[in-house]
Amino acid sequence: MQNMIILGIDPGIAIVGYGVIEYSGNKFKVLNYGAITTKAGTKVKDRLKTIYDSLIDIIREFKPDCIAIEELFYNNNAKTIINVAQGRAMPYLAAANCALEIYEYTPLQVKQAVVGYGRAEKKQVQQMTKMLLNLEKIPKPDDTADALAIAICHAHSFRMNDKLI
After folding, report:
1. Please, are residues 19 and 27 in contact by the beta-carbon 8 Å criterion?
2. What is the distance of C-alpha 2 from the center of its chain?
3. Exposure b/e, 100-121, CB count within 10 A at least 16 = b
4. Residue 41: helix, strand or coil by DSSP?
């Protein structure tokens, strides 16, 4: 199996978690992870530009083969969902402008791929992410750990489906 560099993204408008991993021969290597943050009260257009520009910088530095992103989770707050949806568009725009494929995974799929159980608790996913990636501690904020879990999910899904990117 060839090396695959995956950029996992947990989208948002205030915090965008990201994790860059290399997957080769059933082994993971963490290349980088962190969070892109934007301040409340900042104009939405400026927040979106910060997210986009930061993602482009990450893509240029690590040259991922693809992007894996969590599907949008709906809640009852329309304002929140609109803001998250706007923030979520930035990885799609970055992927399009960098000619990268983008793959979506539901929270259930991520839990299944990382823990082996689709109804796993958040702490279980974080602990397994830490273990699978051989990290000293669970990455913070939670969005970062989630992004790494999404990248792991894609690696496992890619292997299981034997797809070519």
Report:
1. no
2. 21
3. beebebebebbbbbbbeeeebe
4. coil
Cβ 68 vs Cβ 105: under 8 Å: yes
- Residue range 103-129: mean pLDDT, rounded: 93
Q: From residue 148, give the alpha-carbon distance in Å to each of 40, 45, 60, 75, 151.
A: 25, 27, 19, 23, 5
| Tokens 């994790």 -> residue | 19
Q: How many CB atoms lie within 10 A of CB 37?
A: 15
Query: Is-above-0.90 flag for pTM?
Result: yes
pLDDT in tens, 28-42: 999 999 999 999 999
Q: Which residues are catalytic?
A: 10, 70, 143
